[in-house]
Design goal:
alpha+beta, 4-stranded antiparallel beta sheet, 2 helices, 4 strands
Length: 90
């Protein structure tokens, strides 16, 4: 009886598994993630600098595979480029 139960559970598990997992293909790009936070900020430069203020954009990316967050900073106000909810690939 136990063998029959185990065999039936194994058959159900095989029937419910995703076919994409079985053939080794995956649609998730592990070099990409979703932007969860994006903001710009200004830094006041020292007196005598060619520009009095520098602007930067900082954004946080949640990796599609590892779910680890990483922070990236770029020059300029680019919050329209690095929008929350969009995909970012390194």
């Amino acid at each position: 009886m136990k063998k029959l139960l185990l065999c039936s559970l194994a058959v159900i598990a095989m029937a419910c598994s995703n076919d994409d997992d079985n053939n080794g293909s995956s649609s998730t790009d592990c070099d990409c993630g979703r932007i969860t936070i994006s903001s710009s900020f200004n830094v006041v430069n020292p007196v005598g600098s060619p520009t009095p203020v520098s602007t930067f954009t900082s954004f946080v990316v949640l990796n599609n595979c590892t779910y680890r967050e990483t922070t990236h900073t770029v020059n300029g106000n680019q919050t329209n480029v690095y929008r929350v909810g969009t995909q970012y690939c390194r």
